[in-house]
Amino acid sequence: MALLNCTSCSDHGTCNRTTGNCDCSLGYTGSSCSNCDSTLGYLPLGNTRYCYLPIHCPIGTIISSECSGPIQGTCNNVTGTCVCSILFQGSSCSTCVPSGGGGCYNPNECPTGTIISSKCSGSTHGTCDDTTGNCNCSLGYEGSSCSNCNTSLGYVPLGNTGDCYLPIPCPIGTIISSQCSGSTHGTCNDIFGNCTCNEHYIGSSCSNCGAGYSLSPTSGDCYLPLSCPTGSIPPASCSGSTHGTCNDEIGNCTCKPGYTGTSCSSCDTGYIPVLGSCVSLSICPLGSLITTPCSGHGTCDASLGCDCSLGYIGSSCSNCDTSLGYVPLGTTGDCYLPIPCPIGTIISSQCSGLNHGTCNDIIGNCTCGKRYIGSSCSDCAVDYSLSPTSGDCYSPIPCSIGSIISSQCSGSTHGTCNDEIGNCTCKTGYTGTSCSDCAVGYKPLANTGYCYEVKSCPIGTLIPTICSGNGGCNQQTGTCDCYEGYSGTSCSSCDTGYAPLSKTGMCYKVLSCPIGKKISSQCSGPTHGTCNDQTGKCTCSQEYQGASCSSCNSGYNILDSGNCYKIINCPQDPSNGQACSGKGSCNDQIGLCTCNTGYKGTACQNCVVGYARDQSTLECYFVKSCPSSCSNHGICDDHYGTCTCDKGFGGNNCGVCANG
Fold it and tell me: Whole-prediction pTM value?
């Protein structure tokens, strides 16, 4: 492919001679790399050909802008430093020039710079001490106006800008130990520490070659390679690396021993061509069958003779190395290592034995007989089957067809066909020539053609019969299908809602008895009665009666709780036959009287002290005393506490004489 030249890369890129386009350095763009890459933020550096990435200046402490805003200072975004106005100072121009009285003011005049016409050459170069009128120079600057670069610290002028900078070393070359590999390879931009490589050079240190150029290992320079003469065998430069090496700086071949000619394609004196190589006849003998040096089966070593290839031995490499298993390939003079053929799956021999196939051990493949196929001749060809015992293939003989299931041996569930002899081998449960009959202990399943094993069902514990006589036996599963009310493997248990009938082994349906009126239980609870869950009727206790045993029997009375108690009669008055003489209340739970006021006794038949019996009504009344006991001159009526005075006496207590 022809190499292309670029028009110009402006010293800001390298020429890609394959495409003819410039590969621009970082920060540059355009067909000739002459524009600044604004997409990455790069800007032109004044009127120079260079681009730079702006550096932000410090933000002010009070005014949050670069250099405290345009009134107080301007930003030099090449160096990232502020140039303060005459009244301000500081890295961000946020402080006033000292005045002693506070505020900003016009300071004493300090010297102005030679290039930058500001006091002390601007705030980035130095600050003015207005008390003395002298400049305090910033790092890298010196002189009365701070307009000179401090060369003792290594600072140098930045073009004609009046600014100074500390040069940044560029990378050192890999072969030429100079910055940018020396002036012939590139130039150093010591502002940024980057190399601008000359044409044909690339890399950070300009020590690599551009497309189409090669690096001289001695000079370290790049050159355009020259072609060396091409040989005929092989058709390569200097006839290939085995014949010679090409010095592409001058385009000449340096031939290796045994080779000669401008392209190293001819054999030197005492050498003969062998398969494109030159071999010394004095060292490498010719073979007996193959009349070439080392028989063409090895390489010639100038000091050791023939270095035989694997499988060959002898001074001329014409014999087979039998110790490694190599054997002659007919009369060709070549040797080969026999390749084993695949072993059969049943017959563990190559190609499954001589009856199945023969082995071609040159390529390790089997040639199978008529009945056999597969890599090891262990599979059968179409229309043949494999004997699992002998491993041979045979022509199958059909077996008998079933009577119901029209398949050989009545299908795979009933039996398997031995098609070597045409006989069925029946599975468990089946018999007959076609395995269509049921064996002993098996029964046919309806009209399906299948047989099932007759299984016994469990015997009951109380009733020693199959399924306790309380269910039917499923002979297919050997399980009992219990009748209603029965459960368990032998149907000897009662199902939910049923109960055992004594020790008969029978179950009955449990019936509920009536619920009590006050006590919400069957038969009003166990103290009132017991439930006969066979009939659903209550048998009441002595005290109770009714369907739910919630009423009291004769001679019994009911409590608020719903329970009944036996009535105990209280003592009676013999004269009237009334309990507690009719003068009290009877507690018939204990048979005791609670007497009314004024009465006492077991039957309330007596009056208590302070009471007397009225002889006409026989009632007890409270005895009331008369005043002064009627002064012994009258009769006291203790019902009312009044006196009936004797004749001649009067007053409420009969203590005075009557009138007249």
Answer: 0.29
